[in-house]
Amino acid sequence: QVQVEESGGGLVQVGGSLRLSCAASGSVFSFDSISWYHQAPGNEREFVAMISGAGATNYADSVKGRFTISRGDAKNTASLQMNSLKPSDTGVYSCYVVVGAGHYWGQGTQVTVSS
């Protein structure tokens, strides 16, 4: 079993920055991919960014140039650096980890961007 935990959410003003972290623990030697998803109030959950175990990255058009996903210093961790935040970035950010045939979600962390 794999446990996924996010951290780093909070309240920030428009134009500010936040850094989210995702850690996978348990029965995981190395991850195949770690992704971040965003769910704004009243909306469906949407893809934000992904990093593969080999280091390849992919971003939603809405965050390109503002967000950066990277591997963390610790094994099986990843971070999402969010800059130039907008009110539309408000919502719950969830980490999604793929390890072999297993897919695991974290509980999510709240990000609120105030204008």
Question: What would a concise description of this structure say?
Answer:
By secondary structure, the chain is mainly β. The protein has no helices and eleven strands.
Please describe the biggest sheet, giving its number of strands, its sense, and whether it closes into a barrel: 7 strands, mixed
**Extended strand count:** 11
Derived structural class: mainly beta
Q: Which residue ranges are poorly predicted, with pLDDT under 50 across at least 5 consecutive positions?
A: none
Approximate shape: globular
Helix content: under 10%
The SSE string, one letter per element, is EEEEEEEEEEE
Kindly provide the radius of gyration, computed on alpha-carbon positions and rounded to a whole number of angstroms.
13 Å
| Count of helical regions | 0
Task: Report the sheet-strand fraction.
Answer: over 45%
Q: What is the terminal-to-terminal distance?
A: 41 Å
Mean pLDDT: 95
